[in-house]
Design goal:
With 336 residues, the chain is an alpha/beta fold. Helix content is 29%, strand content 23%. It starts with 15 loop residues before the first strand and ends with a strand. The structure holds oxa(dethia)-CoA (UT7).
Length: 336
């Protein structure tokens, strides 16, 4: 007679998940276009016209990705009304923490007093925040954590060549964080995401950290084929955003905010047009004063829209991140 084996207890979590609080951190130093143009034979006018960027923030030399992540996280925890000890997992979306190990997430978890929360970094560049948010929602409903801290943080000034005409004017530094937790109603819609590694060389690190340890500064800076990425973003991302709306059962008319990755104001405008976004839906335009902060751009823009009363607390927002990889992710969320 065969003995009946006990089955594995299946994981069980909250019925739904939502964002409970958001926080942002913008470094103190404002860098206007005028500070950058001479080295790249550009002009304030060209940068404003082609990107919508007026100024960006740069972190201090001694200010790290983890420092910025900590500042944003403390604000997000406060907004959520939650002590760090209640966090079960910390996900840090970043591509500029300059160590493969230890992760920024482990260092951040310790600093916040959230130990022994699970901690890991998510590397999906400008799509990183939407990737980590998708994971966090699934973790809360899947039962692997009751509350998850999600941070998007990048210090791109460390990885930008000030003499590179294709990138020197576009990137900025900053951090945005959200706390994801249980909810009685659905607060994070289905994620539409994907990647296209065939286009790996359109945005990339110039060379591996292993290639030539003696090479001068900026050998590991990011480089970008701007036009190719621009075209991809404009043509391929609108259908992804549309699918995220459809999967969430929401129409563009129902939205209270559209918060796309702040890559370029012209890309933001083009997405609004292709999506036929009604004029009453407020659109994130944080790039003007923040530049392109990669993983941080969506939570930073979200924090600003709520703080300035541009978007309502509890309203519905469409998020879409896209960038190096190439990688992309979009979802509809309920704002905290
Ligand atoms: O965040 C991750 C995803 N990233 C993105 O989505 C970025 C996507 N790409 C872009 O935002 C844009 O491609 C850039 C802002 C990077 C560049 O703008 P563009 O309109 O695509 O410029 P372009 O490379 O097509 O160049 C247009 C003109 C050229 O002059 P001619 O040939 O028309 O006379 C360039 O030589 O602008 C010139 N140019 C510049 N002029 C002043 C190129 N770079 C500069 C510059 N300053 N920095």
């Amino acid at each position: 007679m065969s003995e009946q084996r006990a089955g594995i207890t299946p994981p069980s979590g909250a019925r739904f998940a939502r964002i409970l609080g958001v926080g942002g951190y913008r470094p103190e130093r404002v860098v206007p276009n005028s500070e950058l143009v001479e080295r790249i034979d550009s002009s304030d006018e060209w940068i404003r016209e082609r990107t919508g960027i007026v100024s960006r923030r740069w972190a201090r030399e001694d200010e790290s990705v983890v420092d910025m992540a900590e500042a944003a996280s403390r604000k997000a925890l406060e907004a959520a009304g939650l002590d760090a000890s209640r966090i079960g997992a910390v996900l840090v979306a970043t591509v500029t923490h300059p160590f493969q190990t230890p992760t920024a997430a482990a260092l951040l978890t310790h600093r916040l007093g959230a130990t022994p929360a699970a901690a890991m970094d998510v590397a999906a560049a400008c799509a990183g925040f939407c990737h980590a948010l998708a994971l966090a929602g699934d973790m809360v409903t899947g039962g692997s954590a009751e509350h998850v801290l999600v941070v998007g943080v990048d210090k791109l000034s460390d990885f930008t060549d000030p003499d590179d005409r294709g990138t020197a004017f576009i990137f900025g530094d900053g951090a945005g964080a959200v706390v994801v937790g249980p909810s009685d109603t659905p607060g994070i819609g289905p994620t539409v995401w994907g990647s296209d590694g065939e286009q790996w060389d359109t945005i990339r690190q110039r060379s591996s950290w292993l290639d030539d340890p003696t090479s001068p500064d900026f050998s590991s800076a990011f480089s970008m084929k701007g036009q190719a990425v621009f075209r991809w973003a404009v043509w391929q991302m609108a259908p992804v955003a549309q699918q995220a709306l459809e999967k969430a059962g929401v129409s563009a008319d129902d939205l209270d905010a559209f918060i796309p990755h702040q890559a370029n104001m012209r890309i933001v405008d083009s997405l609004c047009k292709t999506l036929k976004l009604p004029a009453h839906v407020p659109v994130a335009r944080d790039i003007a004063e923040t530049g392109n902060t990669s993983s941080a751009s969506i939570p930073l823009a979200m924090e600003r829209m709520l703080r300035e009363g541009e978007a309502p607390h509890g309203g519905l927002a469409l998020l879409i991140g896209f960038g190096a990889g190439l990688a992309y992710a979009a979802q509809v969320v309920q704002l905290p």
